[in-house]
């Protein structure tokens, strides 16, 4: 390309990296616990509808912005809407990404701790028995989880500072397929536990009488979170994509993979919850208490558990790379030295913002802000407020600032779909997405 910007080595590299950003703790850790606390099957159904309709359309919208401008978000918004405040959308994305990474890296640290402990076999040892108590004792061990948190951030920094192609692309192409395989093994074990079907029913049988405004807002937030939408990350990634690739095809693969992992994850967790007499609504610790129990029922369980945790760690890292990448690419342009500085300064600041989240499960557990611990409030603020706002603004921006002909050309290039698809997409972006997000907010605020 003329300005010598790096590009993805291959289309599959882009898909893997974008899917790598999408697939991570959102599907594996967050979805089960949020579904567990907000209505089970009804939540999952609403999440699916939002993902397939609004999520896919918004993913395409972010792709269009990135590929059309070939620039990172702030510069992209400036180019498309010169002289306006729309570049604030890029800044909002950076702030949201930092906040997400701040608690994301805490959970990344938990996974590292669990992984290290799994190597000694102490997590599947039947003598331990009570995995809930085990979680509590591990998590309140501040030095251990603090160190693991720091290690997680440092790995993220080291990979991001190396540049987009070498780091992210190479890593994703091995890790994602492996995670998928071990997930299938896990689901098979889970589904064959005694009492598994109760869990399947909880997860897949929607009981719509459980649904309230909050369920809808959470499902909306979860749909954006698990596709990495609303913070312009997908703008960043697609800005490295060649002009010839079909955006629609890439988006379908990413949404498909991500929904599949969410489904597998629910099918791995909920049968275990019911088979072991646990509660589905225990919150962020859910997978950490259920999975070791399921693995302990498996031949070579401790080996599989270690392998699973390792791959989950990789999936978590590929999402974390994307969160730090947006901060770095926005501040460093293409200068390698500035890239290194931005990665370290950004990464360490994010670590510091995350410390109170980490301590929320220990010495700060009594420190409540608006009635909940710091960790949960940061998660709530980002997932259910900032991401939907970002998504809303992107949905308004795209049809407003990019002309119809350009939109159509970017969207359909390289795909066999016709004008009908373009028009349907435009309706979803222009009307349905902003209205749905507004309605969810107004409803939760009690105004509508
Ligand atoms: N989508 C990732 C996950 O599900 C997390 C993530 C990465 C993210 N980048 C994001 C969430 C940007 C929201 C916005 O684990």
From TrEMBL:
Its main location: membrane. It comes from the Bacteria. One of its GO terms (cellular component) is membrane. Keywords: Membrane, Transmembrane, Transmembrane helix, Transport. The chain crosses the membrane at residues 12-29, 41-65, 85-116, 145-164, 176-196, 216-242, 254-278, 298-329, 341-361, 381-400, 421-445. It is found in: Membrane. SUPFAM superfamilies: SNF-like. PROSITE patterns: NA_NEUROTRAN_SYMP_3. InterPro entries: Na/ntran_symport, SNS_sf, YocR/YhdH-like. It is a multi-pass membrane protein. Pfam families: SNF. This is Sodium-dependent transporter. It comes from Salibacterium salarium.
């Amino acid at each position: 390309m003329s300005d010598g910007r790096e590009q993805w080595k291959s289309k599959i590299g882009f898909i893997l990296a974008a899917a790598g950003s999408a697939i991570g703790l959102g599907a594996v850790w967050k979805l089960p616990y949020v579904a567990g606390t907000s209505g089970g099957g009804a939540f999952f159904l609403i999440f699916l509808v939002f993902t397939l309709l609004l999520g896919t359309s918004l993913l395409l919208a972010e792709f269009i912005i990135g590929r059309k401008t070939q620039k990172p978000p702030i510069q992209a918004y400036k180019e498309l809407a010169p002289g306006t405040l729309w570049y604030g959308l890029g800044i909002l994305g950076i702030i949201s990404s930092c906040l997400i990474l701040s608690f994301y890296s805490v959970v990344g640290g938990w996974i590292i701790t669990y992984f290290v402990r799994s190597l000694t076999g102490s997590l599947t040892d039947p003598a331990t028995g009570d995995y809930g108590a085990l979680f509590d004792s591990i998590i309140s061990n501040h030095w251990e989880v603090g160190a693991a948190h720091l290690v997680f951030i440092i790995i993220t920094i080291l990979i991001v500072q190396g540049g987009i192609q070498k780091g992210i692309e190479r890593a994703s192409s091995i890790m994602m397929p492996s995670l998928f395989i071990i997930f299938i093994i896990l689901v098979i074990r889970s589904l064959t536990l005694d009492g598994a079907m109760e869990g399947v029913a909880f997860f897949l049988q929607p009981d719509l009488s459980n649904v309230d405004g909050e369920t809808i807002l959470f499902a909306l937030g979860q749909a954006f979170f698990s596709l990495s939408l609303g913070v312009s990350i997908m703008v960043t990634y697609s800005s490295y994509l060649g002009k010839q690739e079909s955006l629609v095809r890439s988006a379908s693969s990413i949404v498909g993979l991500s929904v599949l992992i969410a489904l597998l994850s629910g099918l791995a967790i909920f049968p275990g919850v019911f088979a072991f007499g646990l509660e589905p609504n225990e919150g962020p610790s859910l997978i950490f208490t259920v999975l070791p129990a399921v693995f302990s029922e498996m031949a070579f369980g401790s080996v599989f558990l270690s392998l699973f945790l390792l791959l989950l760690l990789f999936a978590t890292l590929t999402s974390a790379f994307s969160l730090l990448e947006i901060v770095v690419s926005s501040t460093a342009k293409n200068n390698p030295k500035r890239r290194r500085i931005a990665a370290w300064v950004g990464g360490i600041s994010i670590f510091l913002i995350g410390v109170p989240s980490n301590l929320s499960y220990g010495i700060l557990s009594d420190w409540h802000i608006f009635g909940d611990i710091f960790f949960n409030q940061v998660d709530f603020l980002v997932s259910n407020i900032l991401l939907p706002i970002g998504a809303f603004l992107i949905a308004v921006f795209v049809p407003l600032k990019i002309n119809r002909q350009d939109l159509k050309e970017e969207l359909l290039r390289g795909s066999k779909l016709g004008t009908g698809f373009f028009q349907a997409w435009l309706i979803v972006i222009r009307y349905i997405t902003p209205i749905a997000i507004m309605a969810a907010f107004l409803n939760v605020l009690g105004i509508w």
